[in-house]
Amino acid sequence: MKGMESREQKMIDRYTRHSLLRVIGPEGQEKIQRARVLVVGLGALGSTISVLLARAGVGYLRIVDGDAPELHNLHRQILYNEADVHEGLPKAHAAKKHLLEGNSTIVVEPYAEFVNAENVRPLLEGIDVVVDALDNIATRYLVNDCAVSMHIPYVFGGAVETVGNVMSIIPGRTACLRCLWPDPEAVKNHPTASTVGVLSAVASAVASIEVAECLKILVGSLDDLIPGLLVIELWANQYQIVALKPDPGCICAKVAHRDVPRP
């Protein structure tokens, strides 16, 4: 009994600064600890996102990436180190090791694979929130469409050069990624970090905002989500929220009549 009490007290102590927050509280922290979150992509965004979610106490993290850490990743992908590059471990397995070093009380399920049309639905099964840390639009459309059809909240984020974007998608309540970019051909040649670079601070900022949005969803604070697409230009100190409404002709309109998901 004393051992159980000791473990419970350690859990309380670990998350006490979260539990003290007016917007989270003890009940909200319990919801976070019961949550199941999918992080898709473990690069500049995903490495920071997964660290913050693990440290916040998300009870189950499913992490997906088919790449291995490379030297040029290290300036912005804070989860990995030079030893990971030397060993050549897949990012998913290296990430699991480091995440559990920071919080051994959670479950981390790694998938060392890329998201495709065949595995996207199984990867989303049993998940409460999907957090996007991808770097290509085609895969984002796959995840968006699947999340919308499965009625799973989806937090989109992107970072290129000195610009970042964040948008929370709640099926049945908000616009989705196809409302923002209805024509895949028009955006398939958008610049990426591999072509124009990315400021590490922008990636960290976007990742932090995505985590905040994810936690809002998990504790049920849907009214506090960003009301549209957040655009930040960190170098020029420009910040804007672009209001978006669901497109009546979009796939997300088909689920608009369903109940809004609540944690």
TrEMBL record:
It comes from the Bacteria. It holds the Pfam family ThiF. InterPro entries: ThiF/MoeB/HesA (IPR045886), ThiF_NAD_FAD-bd (IPR000594), Ubiquitin-activating_enz (IPR035985). The keyword Membrane applies. Keywords: Membrane, Transmembrane, Transmembrane helix. Gene3D superfamilies: NAD(P)-binding Rossmann-like Domain. Residues 15-250 form the THIF-type NAD/FAD binding fold domain. One of its GO terms (cellular component) is cytoplasm. GO terms for molecular function: nucleotidyltransferase activity; thiosulfate-cyanide sulfurtransferase activity; ubiquitin-like modifier activating enzyme activity. SUPFAM superfamilies: Activating enzymes of the ubiquitin-like proteins (SSF69572). The chain crosses the membrane at residues 37-61. Belongs to the HesA/MoeB/ThiF family. This is HesA/MoeB/ThiF family protein.
